[in-house]
Amino acid sequence: MMNKPISRRSFLKKSLAATGLTLAVSVTPFGYKLLNASDQKEGKLSSFKPSVWFEITPDNVVTISVPNSEMGQGVRTALPMIVADELEADWKQVRIIQAPAADPFKNSVFDSQITVGSASVRGFYEPLRKAGAAGRAMLVMAAAQTWQVPEKECEASMGTVRHKNSGRSLTYGQLCQKAAKLQVPQDPTLKNESEFRYMGKPMPRVDIPEKVAGIAVYGLDINVPDMLYAVIARPTAYGAKPVSYDRKEAEAVNGVRKVVPTPNGIAVCAESLDAAWKGRDTLHVKWGEGSHPGLSSDFIEQHFIEGLDKPGVPALKIGDAKKALGEARKKVEATYFLPFVAHVTMEPMNSTAYVQKDRCDIWVPTQAQTATQLAASKLLELPPEKVHIHTTLLGCGLGRRARADFVIDAVAASKVVGKPVKVVWSREEDMKYDFYRAATCQRIVAGLDSQGRLIGWSHKIACSSILRYLNPAAIKDGIDMYSLGGIVDYPDSHHHNQTVYDIPNFYVEQYLSDLPVPVSPWRSVQNAPNAFVMECFMDEMAHGAGKDPIEFRLPLLKNNMRARRVLETVAEKAGWGKPVPKGKGRGIAQHSCFGTYVAQVAEVSVNEKDGTIKVDRIVAAVDCGPVVNPDPLIAQIEGAVVMGLSTALKEQVEFAYGGVKSANFDDYNIIRMSEIPDIEVHIIKSREKIGGIGEPGVPPTAPAVANAVFNAAGVRLRRLPMTPERVLAAIRQK
Amino acid sequence: MIFLNVNGKSYEINVSGDLPLLWVLRDYLKLTGTKYGCGIGECGSCTVHVDGKAERSCRISIGEVRGGKITTIEGLPETHPVKRAWIEEQVVQCGYCQPGVIMQVSALLSESPNPDPEKIISGMDNVICRCGTYPRIKRGIRKAVQLMRKEG
User: Fold this and answer.
1) Which residues of chain B does A427 touch, with a Cβ-Cβ cutoff of 8 Å?
2) Of A102, A136, A177, A246, which is most buried, counting CB atoms within 10 Å of its CB?
3) pLDDT digits over A605-636, tens only?
4) Are the beta carbons of A531 and A591 closer than 8 angstroms?
5) Distance from CA of B113 to the nearest CA of A (A)
6) Which domain does B24 fall in, by range?
7) Which residues numbered 541-600 in A keep a CB inside 8 Å of some CB on B?
8) B41 touches chain A (CB under 8 A)
């Protein structure tokens, strides 16, 4: 494996000088088409590039382009594994590069080049397999023509085509120029699963060695010659505008070059970061009081609780919930609240831009190449193809880096100063100017019949609108489907974010909050908050019906084999039903999103004296269909469980005086190592449709823990995070 | 003029002595392996060794480390058991916090001729990994100790 570290130099160097066979996939609304993208130099094919995805050059190197952003999920390894497997390349001859922002690299799930929605492998699995297989077929054909033998007598294996009868062989490097002249087959024969060389077997991640060496390049590590550093002075409250500031005083600071108003504030551009910070301190910006001066944490909670009694919009109506509830033998009712949660990527937001007369270069840890390109193109009135996006490694993505807000200030400032500008956010800015995970308050009333079966469900959801910030035009008839994820999904959605249960007489109503707190997808979007509500409530109903939580769920999953299977698998692996010692408890929860099913069992100890919850063990069962790289897949579930635990026990953004009060890791709690239990992940062997893996591990964790707390201490915690104070208060009220 | 010894090399730089070591390493010496995470010594991403001890480079000024022997992630040998363990156990996800984690673990390991992995693990609550690699950091620590023991 030749994974060339992406050095600063190679970032700045315009490369892609091709010399062999190159294959491309053109994604259209009707599917995709394989294209021959081989480079022609003076009418001569110099390389085999039957698609934009890979290129084979006479030096026998297979260069594979990865369109997605590497943020630790292992996409730079997984996608090339798919291509190399079907191509029958030797992993040792594979070189991996980051693709630029360009139409052929769009993910068909979104029609955008973007790494979100756990969609990298599930979006590219089929096209990349086909591209690899087409390349293999063309190389075999090229060899057969060379030897003038039938193709079926030739076999491709590990970067070489052999003629079985004569024992002659040619490497892919030797064949690439001939192959480049052939037609690309549109429907090549794919391998059988038993023929997979790489897929399904653990492959060490290609990005790990350079990360361990300390030479990996993240956005904050970009250093463009002659660049200036910029920091942004930003409003302290939502909607606040600058009343006055001392531009001259700031520009008089040693090293400060210029003060530039930008879309998100006022940029202080300087020769060093230190000078930029000093300059910002001397700006003495006076901000107006903003649009919601009374905004505070208490105000927000009250706002959402009151939202439940305000008229909403019906989002789903199956049968007649009102009638069913009227006929119910027993009713179960509960109200839940989940606060705003911050992304807190370890690498704070940053970007570097260099605007020149007719081009713009942006070096950025982004999840969204297309959106970034379009945002800069709009600001500069330049055609998108003149905006060159150089994607660095990402110090976490989590959905935060799918926005372009942290890019446009660098672009705006560079345009004015005429030099490359690196905008650096402090941790405090990163915390305060986030687009948070949406807060939500939800109330469910459900009815059980005389046998304890669910017969009706009425669900009111008050929540922030994600689409208001993402794509307001997608709010249809007042409904924000993104905020309903995990309960209701768009018809024919690619994401499969609807509840796994067949709920009879099911009514869902949504009230969208108008608070100014910006929100966006946060690892699993609203699947995690909504799963907390759904799965805790399932447990409450099971208890109300006097049934075991799994026994209560199974009849609602008659038509959902995959959901049943993860539930039964996790129960078996976790020893569900075995007695637990006093003070300890076990809870179960499941959820499906982005095409993957996950169930988890949590074992907890509750200290009834100080209210602390200790999570002793988490067992997870996962069905994501075919597995490309199993070890990073397990790592994704482990990481998702850790994040789920952090939101269950620790995280909440605090607000005061119309803005965000939380600032850094000393006042925004994130779970630490000693609080992490043993996490066991069981992958179910599955031939179902391939699902995503980055996000689906998050949703079941918090409800599994809350249900375990009920099992241990007999108290329902319907508000996150489950802090010791809230546990104690619930125990006292028991 | 300030003289610094970083990874066995001597540097002289013309900056004020109150600058945090972190930004001098990153922006002046271009040793970008040391990461900025919080600036208040809470997350550990910026951890380096000063005379063999783990220090938060965001909270220490270059004036204070003048004359000291500084080692950053780039200066920790590739053959170091922690670096090897991190690759063998595939600890890393996004990797941004890991240089700091590795520097802290390697400093704790060097404190005792016969280190106890569980003791080291219990000393790791002052680092934050947002990807949630904690279970694998634990595995990495146990593996590193094993490698050290095996190789004396």
Assistant:
1) 37-40
2) A136
3) 999 999 999 999 999 999 999 999 999 999 99
4) yes
5) 24
6) 2-74
7) none
8) no
Q: Which class in CATH covers the domain with range A218-291+349-424?
A: alpha beta
Q: At what angle do helices A724-733 and A701-713 cross, to 10 degrees?
A: 40
Report the 10 Å Cβ neighbour count for B112. Answer: 10
Interfacial A residues in 620-649 facing B (CB < 8 Å): 631-632, 635, 638-643, 646
Whole-number pLDDT of residue A51:
72
Measured at the alpha carbon of residue B133, what is the angle toward residues A68 and A667, in degrees to the nearest 5? 100
- Please name the residues between 48 and 67 in chain B that touch chain A, using a CB distance below 8 Å: none
Cα–Cα distance between A257 and A259 in angstroms, integer? 7
Long-range contacts of B73-77 (CB under 8 A, 24+ apart): B73/A213, B73/A214, B73/B33, B73/B34, B73/B48, B73/B99, B73/B100, B73/B102, B73/B103, B74/A213, B74/A214, B74/A215, B74/B7, B74/B31, B74/B33, B75/B6, B75/B7, B75/B8, B76/A214, B76/B102, B76/B103, B76/B106
Query: Distance between CA atoms of A305 and B125, rounded to whole angstroms?
Result: 36
CATH number attached to the domain at A8-195: 3.30.365.10
User: Residue A679: phi, psi to the nearest 5?
Assistant: -120, 120
Does residue A16 surpass a pLDDT of 70? no
What is the Cα–Cα distance from A697 to A599, expressed in whole angstroms? 8
Hey, where are the domains in chain A?
8-195, 218-291+349-424, 297-342+436-512, 529-733
> d(Cα A486, Cα A469) in Å, to the nearest integer?
20
pTM of the model: 0.95
Q: Residue B110 corresponds to which tokens in the numbers above?
A: 């060097």
Beta strands in A357-453 (DSSP E): 359-364, 387-391, 421-424, 440-448
Show residues of chain B in contact with A209, CB under 8 Å. Answer: 87
Query: B85: distance to nearest CA of chain A, Å?
Result: 10
B94/A670 touch (CB, cutoff 8 Å), yes or no: no
Closest by alpha carbon to A535, among A718, A684, A695, A321?
A: A718
Q: In the numeric block, which tokens belong to residue A72?
A: 């630790």
**Which string of b and e fits A317-334 if b means at least 16 CB within 10 Å?**
eeeebeebbeebeeebeb
A72, A211, A672: residue with CB nearest B125:
A672
Q: How many Cβ pairs within 8 Å bridge chains A and B?
A: 161
Specify the number of domains making up chain B: 2
In the predicted model, what is the mean pLDDT of residues A217-222? 98
B125 vs A: CB within 8 A: yes
Residue of A68, A346, A398 to mutate, testing the B interface (most B Cβ within 10 Å of its Cβ): A346
- Asked whether residue B91 falls in the same domain as residue B133, the answer is yes
- For A634, phi then psi, to 5°, come to -65, -40
Q: Helix, strand, or coil here: A73?
A: coil
CA distance B36 to chain A (A): 7
Residue of A nearest to B82 (CA): A212
- pLDDT at residue number A186: 85
What radius of gyration do chain A's Cα atoms show?
Answer: 27
| pLDDT bucket at A29, cuts 50 / 70 / 90 | very low
Task: Tell which of B48, B74, B100 closes a domain.
Answer: B74
Given A346, A639, A640, which is nearest B96 (Cβ)? A346
Question: pLDDT value at position A48?
Answer: 76
ipTM topping 0.95: yes
For residue A225, the surrounding DSSP H or E stretch is: none
Cβ contacts of A213 on chain B, cutoff 8 Å: 33, 73-74, 78, 83
DSSP per-residue letters across A25-47:
EEEETTEEEEEE---EETTEE-S
